[in-house]
Amino acid sequence: MAKRVSLFVTCMVDQFLPKVGLAMAEVLERAGFAVEFREPQTCCGLPAHQAGCTPQARAVGSHFLKTFDDADFVVVPSPTCAAMLGRDLPRLFADDPSAQANAQTLSARVWEFSRFLLEVAQIDSLGARFPHRVTLSDTCPAPATAGPRKLLEGVDGLEYVEMTGPSECCGFGGLFRLQYPQEAETMTQKQVGRILRSGATHVVGLEVGCLLQLRGAFERGQHAVQTVHLAEVLASR
Amino acid sequence: MSRDAILQAVRTALGRKPFQKPSAGPEPILQVHNWTASERVEQFQSALVAAGGQVSRAPSMSHVREIVEELVAGRPAVASLAPILAECGITSLAGVQSSFSGTEALRHACASATVGITSAWCLLAETGSIVLRASAEEPRLLSLLPPVHIVVVPLRRLLENADEFFGLLPQPADSSSATVLVTGPGRRTLHVILVE
Amino acid sequence: MTTPSQRMVGIAELRERAAGIKKHVLANLDHYLLETEKQVTAHAGHVVFAQTIDEAVDYIRALARERGVDHLVGASATALADEVGALRQEIESRASEFGSYLAGPAAPPDRAASFEMECLLEAGIGVTGASFVLADTGAVCLAENDDFGCLSSAAPKIHVVVAGMESILPRTRDLAVFLRLLSDRFPHHISLLSGKRRDDEMDGPDEFHLILLDGGRSALLADLEKRELLQCIRCGACLENCPVTPAGHPGALTQLLSLPPLAGPFLAASTLCGTCREVCPVKIDLPRLLVALRQDHRLARSGWRTWLFRVWAFLMQRPRLYEISGLMIRSFWPAAWKGQRPATKSFRQLWRERKN
């Protein structure tokens, strides 16, 4: 019987790039899993946590815990949301040992999408085809990792080029770009420059926020580079 | 009393009692490359030059005097009482003052000199550094005030790096009030003469 | 005596060791304060404990008065704004009653350096900071990109050091680890100064005073979550590498690394990208601490963010309301924000359609 995985698509995917969630579901089904989507899901609480609004982060985190209480695997198309749920959320319940234990149990079952494929599903190739020149924009709290690159290697027709400084911050930073738009723009333009110099036609990322930030910059600058999430690449035929 | 208040605040913060022994702590990591003597010389030269300094090699003590005379070029100079400087005949060069009647005279001479000539306690190959130790022979201001600094050092004093130096440093540092590691000329001109 | 190790270790291991040594000192700080005091005193130096920068200034002022000193000279040894910079401001603001001045810059390495010889030679007291204080010998270590600290300690008759009490290291040879980690370039000038001149030395100070400054450090020590901040060796690597703030501009890090940490306007000026943590020689988890500081700030005062997130949390716990809000936001998205426009249909809408 197929193992069951529960999708936590993230609020950003839900509202801004739902095709990423659909792509992720397709890849997981192709990998032999039964995929479910629990309607009550909303957000992981990261924006509140980063802003220092701990009670609100806890409240929203509790809602997550309730929603996914009995899930065996929760797969997330975002390393920062996965880190929030896996690492930071239990710490928010430090003053409530039973809630913390509960959070820790569930957090051990939360998986970022690429790590789930490599470590749980243990597959690095899914018959995907994406015949383009591609560069990877790493997620900045995690330095350049081998996992996503390995998955891209298994994609037919894909030509991979490395940009300089792939894990330098793109300037999205959640609320940051609204409060410090000039600084964010400077950082985004630096990454745009690096991507253009790499010669890639597509930039692959793991964070929807970063992809949106870059997409906006490419459109404003009228560059032809396309932004795409790793899940979409792996779902392509 | 601030002293007691602060110590008490620290102990309370750490949950430690007065006179409690410290816990065991990690040792530092000291690393050496085990270079040969010629590797050390080569490394020292390239590091010092990369840092903006100048290096000369004197095959013997008699050559040193010539080199120094040329570098000094008749400008007012002060020199330390390091034996090697006298042995090389530097202290007898015209215009080089090496004896001072007292601290005030020394300060004044160093402040008005263009060139300061000293030896060094040792050299560090990895970084191209010179190590100066204050002593009866080597006043501090000689190497600090004049805009040009000439250092005359026998090759046998060339160590590998700061790690080797700190491994060897006499403890406790009773014998000198100041030890200085200088890497590169900074705002001045630095010339090191390596003597065989 | 430790014999040099044969193997060459990588930066990761060095950072781990450096962090370990700093953690050890902090965990036993009272012991190391007393050891330092013992050693400095044994070399005929004076040790003073100051709870605040004002106390340090008062001590220096009293000393100057007692010794009939009119002029001071001073320099800071570190890249980050620190107590000697604050000291300079304090003294300059009281210049009329003190008749003194502080010359020589507490300058960042990229600024052109200059030093006035006259100031140096006239000064009766030289005031410096310290990069490290060595408990085994009672010496202070100044690691500088120029030599002003060294000059300030060598020329005047009295040398006063103002050192944060967290800057103590157990042994002189611990410096081998930290100097390797201090920067891409080995510091231009590293001075190990152990008190007044020895009897046979021709120059150097006649008096040595070490002011060990608390200035909020004991409070930080008591804060288990933020104690890690005291591991900071003021190398400036985090500031140099932060992608948000160009060099020299204040930002989140400047506030975080102030003592005590400042909950001020620039806390939000960070994407939490983690570059600072990756380059920190003593492995301080700076992004985590920045979030902790933001948490303190929220608790202290409810700004617009608190209200924003209260509304947000209300919605996020109620899936139906969340969905309706999402629908409204998508319908009324401003054209000006076209670059980050939301999708026409949400994922859950598409998922429902997919199932049917």
Give the % helix of chain A: 40-55%
**Lateral arrangement of strands in the main beta sheet of chain A:** 2-1-3-4
Shape call of chain A: globular
- The CATH class designation of the largest domain in chain C is Alpha Beta
CATH architecture of the largest domain in chain C: 3-Layer(aba) Sandwich
Average pLDDT rating of chain A: 93
Q: End-to-end span of chain A in angstroms? A: 26 Å
What percentage of residues of chain C falls in helices of 4 or more residues? 40-55%
Shape of chain C: elongated
What number of structural domains do the residues of chain A give? 2
Poorly predicted regions of chain A are none
Query: Any low-confidence stretches of chain C, pLDDT <50, length ≥5?
Result: 1-6, 96-113
Sequence of strands across the biggest β-sheet of chain C = 1-9-6-3-2
* Fourth-level CATH superfamily of the largest domain in chain C: NagB/RpiA/CoA transferase-like
| Element-by-element helix/strand order of chain C | HHEHEHHHEEEHEEHEEHHHHHHHH
- Tell me the major beta sheet of chain C: 5 strands, parallel
> How many beta-strand segments of chain C?
9
Gap from first CA to last CA of chain C: 77 Å
Might you state the CATH topology name of the largest domain in chain C?
A: Rossmann fold
Number of helices of chain C: 16
Walkthrough of the structure:
The complex is a heterotrimer of chains A (237), B (196) and C (356). Chain A has 237 residues and is of the alpha/beta class. Helices cover 51% and strands 12% of the residues of chain A. Chain A has helices spanning 11-15, 18-30, 46-50, 54-67, 79-92, 97-107, 113-121, 146-153, 176-179, 181-198, 208-220, 230-235; strands spanning 4-7, 34-37, 74-76, 110-112, 133-137, 159-160, 202-205, 226-229. In chain A, strand 7, helix 11 (208-220) and strand 8 (226-229) form a beta-alpha-beta unit. In chain A, helix 10 (181-198) crosses helix 11. The longest helix of chain A is centred in the C-terminal third of the chain and has 18 residues, at 181-198. Chain B has a single domain, classed as NagB/RpiA/CoA transferase-like (Rossmann fold). Chain B contains seven helices and ten strands. In chain B, strands 1-10-7-4-2-3 form a six-stranded parallel sheet, sandwiched between helices. Chain B has a four-stranded mixed sheet with strand order 8-5-6-9. The radius of gyration of chain C is 25 Å and the shape is elongated. Chain C has three domains: 4-219, Rossmann fold (3-Layer(aba) Sandwich), CATH 3.40.50; 236-300, no CATH class; 304-355, no CATH class. In chain C, the strands form two sheets. A five-stranded parallel sheet of chain C has the order 1-9-6-3-2, with helices on both faces. Chain C has a four-stranded mixed sheet with strand order 7-4-5-8. Chains in contact: A-C, B-C. Strand 9 (178-183) of chain B pairs antiparallel with strand 8 (189-193) of chain C.
